[in-house]
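User: Good morning. I'm curious how adenosine-5'-triphosphate would be positioned relative to this chain. Could you predict the structure with it bound?
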Amino acid sequence: MTDTTSTPSPGRGRTSEGAAVQGERRIITALFCDVVNSTALAEQLDPEDWTEILNEAFQHLTAPILRYEGTVAKLMGDAVLAFFGAPVAHEDDPRRAVLAALDMIAAIGAFRETVKSERGLEFDVRIGINTGPVVVADIGARAMDALGDAINVAARMEQAAGPGTILLSGDTYRLLAPLFDVEALGEIELKGKADRVPAFRVIGPKAAPGRVRGIDGVSAPLIGRDREFARLRDAMTSVLSGRGQIVGLLGEAGLGKSRMLSELKQEWDRASPPNRWIVLSGVPYDASRPYGLFQNYARSMFGVELNDPVETIHDKIVATLRGHGKDEETIALCATAFERVIAARTLLDGSRYDVEVVKNDIYNTLSPGLARHARNGPLVLVVDDLHWADPASVELLLALLSLVEDVPLLIVFALRPERQSAAWRIRQRAETDYPHRYTELSLRPLDATDTNALVSALLSIADLPAELRQLILRKTDGNPYFVEEIVRTLIDEGVVRQTADGLHWEAKTDVSEIAIPDTLQALLMTRIDRLDQETRSTLQLASVIGRSFYYSILKRISESAMALDRQLLSLERVELLLESARLPELEYMFKHELARDAAYGSLLNRKRRDFHRRVGEAIETIFVGRLEEQAHRLARHFDLAGDTAKAQRYYEVAAETAASMHATAESAAHLAHALDCARKNGAPPTDLERLAARQAALLGAATQTLPGSA
Ligand SMILES: Nc1ncnc2c1ncn2[C@@H]1O[C@H](COP(=O)(O)OP(=O)(O)OP(=O)(O)O)[C@@H](O)[C@H]1O
Ligand SMILES: [Mg+2]
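Assistant: Good morning! Here's the predicted structure, ligand included:
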């Protein structure tokens, strides 16, 4: 056996190299905003006046960035660079960036008029947005920097934008097409770029936004879920016969809560007259906006349009309330309360009303309104994405639950099982106070048969290779959304070709790994970003070991061995990790392989190499004396660490171990890797010949033994 007993040095290089390696790889949406013609403007003004104008403009520009939880990364002269997705990811970062940009343009609109009338100057800004991978440095610190072509493209988009407009790159637009109206500007030339790139000017949010999920031209029927859907149907039947009901749909992101709701709607529409289906939705960036959940409902209740000024909103609310026969005093109070819900501003001075009064006014209008509606015939109130509801909306919903005792109302809420969300109380209240009317449906991942059926429905390809199918199953863990996104990636990467008559498998491509789709990277990073810095680092470190890992190895290489147990416990609690075995060795695994991929994908290449080396060295120490059985792991870790000499040796050991167990194909594969490493290493020709000869002998032996073994 080759020399594998090098001195154990788990911490070697940790301080020197580890400390130097800062930052993370992330997918971000970068927003560049710049003042149009600033040089000419600055020339006409005293520097102090110019600074004053810019300072005020920056205030208008940064407020929307913060409102959508972006980060102002840099103020540079007369430009602002903002990131959506760093230091904290949101699953809808591109959308947030565009909404912020629209608000920025609107805010500057008013300011622009003032500058024009007071100083006679034409002041305006333009914005460019792009989404892509970057390296973000100094996470958590005040200042943040990101490097990567994605930022340059955002800057170039901004330079190509006209005054008062927003340009999106193709990479951003692709993620948002169902949500915003745009004008396609064709391919534009970008300074310093060889290829022309597509650009899109944002017109505004779509009046009827489409679904961001699903794949154009590819769809699957609802698969599995028969039992859950039957219970949903029972609740519906009860309500149709006059008995109010509450249903809670619980499940992790992507398991199909919204899909169940839309299937239910189809059934309901067949059984009930129109307009008896009300939808409220939690919005991720509105989780702190009071009554945000009810904003759209209040709008439709009073016939308020999206761009109505506050005076019109006031008039419409007053007119509707008069129609309900309320007295003038109540009307004045309620109007103010609802103006707050709809526009967050009030026509009259709203500050003299206290919170309790506002709350009662809203409740006293909404509750009888809904009751009246339901008395006219069975009614459904759907609350999707309840986990994002603001606390005030949760209070209101809690109060509305009691309506099911009196009227034929079906309240269905869909909720991710996040116990710390304000919305969790709704589930608890339904369970304790209305057990006789409450049905809870917990969606679990699809089983292997159903996942397979879903893959077949989406990829109706006769000759789909079995390994690819297995890979999809392994990566997606029965989550339908993950399946869709992986299939989309296969289409995007040309592994599967989409034509008018369906999907086709491109046999020439070899797929052994699928890159994690950007959408899932973002979704999974939101969970990882919620961890404290040390726990997060531990998770990243664990991701280098693999989807499942021995506690002993992690402990050996962890920076904070003392805190490790606590961190593992909290990682189990947030369901990123599971304890997969106690005996013979304590072992953990990532609950989702894609979560491992996301954590691993966020590590800088240098850090990854360093971690792989540390993992390799830890295995050498812990499994000393049993290195043959670990050789394939050691080989991979040292290979990924860039230590090709060690990797070559271990690949050879792994090859011999496999050969001794008659696993000829594996053995040959290990030798192929060993040869690869030897070449990278500049090994002498004799070495290469020896390896090639061994490989040939193995393959020869394999063909010879085949007939006999058959
Ligand atoms: N049982 C199923 N059969 C076929 N497709 C499904 C099934 N369940 C979900 N899907 C599809 O998977 C995708 C994700 O489902 P959906 O959006 O309903 O998840 P969700 O639970 O609402 O997630 P989130 O918490 O993020 O809102 C959708 O495109 C949906 O159509
Ligand atoms: Mg949903």
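The CA atoms of residues 414 and 444 lie 14 Å apart. The chain is about 50% helix and 15% strand.
Let me know if you'd like a different ligand tried.
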